[in-house]
Design a protein that fits this description.
Layout: E1 4-7, H1 11-23, E2 27-33, H2 40-44, E3 47-52, H3 63-73, E4 77-79, H4 89-97, E5 101-102, H5 107-114, H6 116-125, H7 141-151, E6 155-159, E7 168-171, H8 177-192, E8 197-201, E9 207-215, E10 221-233, E11 236-242, H9 249-265, E12 270-278, E13 284-290, H10 297-304, H11 308-316, E14 333-340, E15 342-343, E16 349-350, E17 353-354, E18 357-359, E19 366-370, E20 377-378, E21 385-393, H12 396-409, E22 411-413, H13 419-426, H14 429-433, H15 440-444
Parallel strand pairs: 1-2, 1-4, 2-3, 4-5
Antiparallel strand pairs: 6-7, 6-8, 9-10, 9-12, 10-11, 11-14, 12-13, 14-21, 15-16, 17-20, 18-22, 19-21
Length: about 450
């Protein structure tokens, strides 16, 4: 086992990793930008290093600064969290060259799965169902028109290097195709520095179901059940739950086997998430694989009892998984609400500022992952998520009831938040019925 872990991230995920490291007796190093000098992760780590200015390119996306911070502090491992450098193959490779353990998959796996078109090709070889569409990058309008004629409308144009809902366009008819491809390519170039795109058939009103996998370096791969991430706004997840209301033992077995096959075909190790779309006939299709820990990982931890971050650390150190697929049992129900500093009444405008008062709910089955504290100033430079409120109960009905009062008890003063918006979702009869799909919020608004 390595001795000292540098967390190449910020906010609640940095705090989460620091705590997992402490439980394993590992020393931690936090990195922070000048804007995050008073951030919680920088205060609670064993050591903290300033790596640059507020702009992400100068700090949390600065590979050289991260490597230098490892060298200065003697950190022999890096946990990238999610976002920033977490799915950056170059960073993972450079860590290896410098003798630093990257707590994640191999650079080769990151590269393959980061290219959505290449990932889709690999899934076909593994026998994993994929959404009908192009076999790789679409290089011309003429090629796009031929593919569109074959798969039919509506269809989606997607950035090959995309993520987070960026570089995606819906095309309803042939006369929209060229304009939407141009728009998708421009957005992809702006956000990812790569304007390559691919095309997929648009699955009408599907569920967004993702499977958590763990894979060690000895060839053992298991899944830990599913998360329903269908409650989305503008392709951004708002609320997640596990298990899904549509899941049956047979469907879980089929999807779980597909998830494991997806990981194996890539020679994958560490934690990963395979995302699927599921239609109303329970046909499922591979969408993408995320090569990192997910924001919504706590709900899987609640229903399986497996600490995913500690599992990541142990896998990176070369340890075998201590459990087989038969050991994993899905028990109870868990829901996560993302608490953001934003104003839903003003088109979800971010709300940076100082938190003047803070009360976090507690009690049995309540978990809050956060880096916020009373007196902390939320900066305008980074993501607006300030906390994740997670509940667990024996049944879905009890979990919904628990989330209702937990949200009602969650008080943040000094900045606007989406707490009331989340409360309205939890009280929504459609959510309570479980019969919502990926487009529900868009239709509602």
């Amino acid at each position: 086992m390595f001795k000292k872990v540098l967390i190449a991230n910020r906010g609640e995920i940095a705090v989460r990793v620091i705590r997992a490291c402490r439980e394993l007796g590992l020393k931690t190093v936090a990195v922070f930008s000048t804007a995050d000098r008073n951030a919680l992760h920088a205060k609670i780590a064993d050591e903290a290093v300033c790596i640059g200015g507020p702009a992400t390119k100068d700090s949390y996306l600065n590979e050289q600064a991260m490597i230098a911070a490892c060298e200065i502090t003697g950190a022999d491992a890096v946990h990238p969290g999610f976002g920033f450098l977490s799915e950056n193959a170059s960073f993972a490779r450079n860590c290896g060259k410098c003798g630093i353990t990257f707590i994640g998959p191999s650079p080769e796996s990151i590269e393959m799965l980061g290219d959505k078109a290449a990932a889709k090709s690999a899934m076909k070889k593994a026998g994993v169902p994929v959404i009908p569409g192009s076999d790789g990058e679409v290089k011309s309008i003429e090629e796009a028109q031929d593919i569109a004629d074959e798969i039919g409308y509506p269809l989606m144009v997607k950035a090959s290097a995309g993520g987070g809902g960026r570089g995606i366009r819906l095309v309803n008819s042939p006369d929209e195709l060229e304009a939407q491809i141009t728009a998708a390519k421009q957005e992809a170039l702006n956000f990812f520095g790569d304007d390559s795109i691919y095309m997929e058939k648009f699955i009408i009103n599907p569920k967004h179901i993702e499977f958590q996998i763990l894979a060690d370096k000895h060839g053992n791969v298991i899944h830990l059940g599913e998360r329903d991430c269908s409650m989305q706004r503008r392709n951004q997840k708002v609320l997640e739950e596990s298990p899904s209301t549509i899941m049956t033992p047979m469907l879980r077995e089929r999807m779980g086997k597909a998830a494991v096959a997806a990981a194996k075909v890539c020679g994958y190790y560490n934690a990963g998430t395979i995302e699927f779309l599921v239609d109303d006939k329970q046909n499922f299709y591979f969408m993408e694989m995320n090569t990192r820990i997910q924001v919504e990982h706590p709900i899987t931890e609640f229903v399986t009892g497996v600490d995913l971050v500690k599992a990541q650390l142990k896998i990176a150190a070369g340890k075998e998984l201590p459990y087989s697929q038969e050991d994993i049992r899905i028990k109870g129900h868990s829901i996560e609400c993302r608490i953001n500093a934003e104003n839903p009444e003003k088109n979800f405008r971010p709300s940076p500022g100082r938190i003047s008062a803070l009360h976090i709910p507690g009690g049995p089955g309540i978990r809050v992952d956060s880096s916020a504290y009373q007196g902390y100033t939320i900066t305008p430079y980074y993501d607006s998520m300030i906390a994740k409120l997670i509940v667990y109960a024996p049944t879905r009905e009890e979990a919904i009831a628990k989330m209702k009062w937990a949200l009602a008890e969650f008080i943040v003063e000094g900045v606007d938040t989406n707490i009331d918006f989340q409360l309205s979702l939890i009280r929504d009869p459609v959510f309570e019925s479980g019969k919502y799909d990926i487009g529900y919020l868009g239709r509602k608004s």
